[in-house]
Amino acid sequence: MEPLPDLSTSDRLLDAAAQVFCERGYDGTTVAEVARRASLTTGAIYANFRDKAELLLKTIERGSSAAVVDMEAARAAGASAADRLLLMARRMVAEPDSTERLLFVEMFSAARRHPDVGRRVAEALSAMEAELAKLMDRARDDGDVDPVWEPAVLARFCLALGVGFTQLAVAGLPDPDAAEWVALAERIISAVRPLS
Hints:
Layout: H1 9-28, H2 31-37, H3 42-48, H4 52-76, H5 81-94, H6 98-113, H7 115-142, H8 151-170, H9 178-191
Helix pairs in contact: 1-2, 1-4, 1-6, 4-5, 4-6, 5-9, 6-7, 6-8, 7-8
């Protein structure tokens, strides 16, 4: 086992949790093992996280924050909403993160087995979907999306596409050719643009 880099207590715990969740799954992970991997005590976990479910959700949230940062940087640089959607499509195949993918799938597995985790996962997914709906709403305002399309419906489509893509990758299906995937994404995005 490699020592973890010098990070904050929370980051050390999240790094260790990601390792253990990927190796043992949600049910096989104990807070004691996460603490041991982080070279900390279980008290450190409970000082930073409510429970094991929160630890799982925070590992996923932290992993997806890089995508949010990229999207916001693209927006600040003047990229249209359509261009930001293409950025998300490219990230799916150009920069796959196997740990992030495994954690995401583990989240769904835990949600199915544990009602409290399921409720919290639904809340987290609803928040993701709400952010996507805001992006779609801005896309309508920018003229990138035809006003006939409801932002909530487009957000659900994007979320379903991302979840399905991740599930297939974890199941062992190889990622599609990146250029063809991006070309398809461009075609789908053009289909929801206003008619000339």
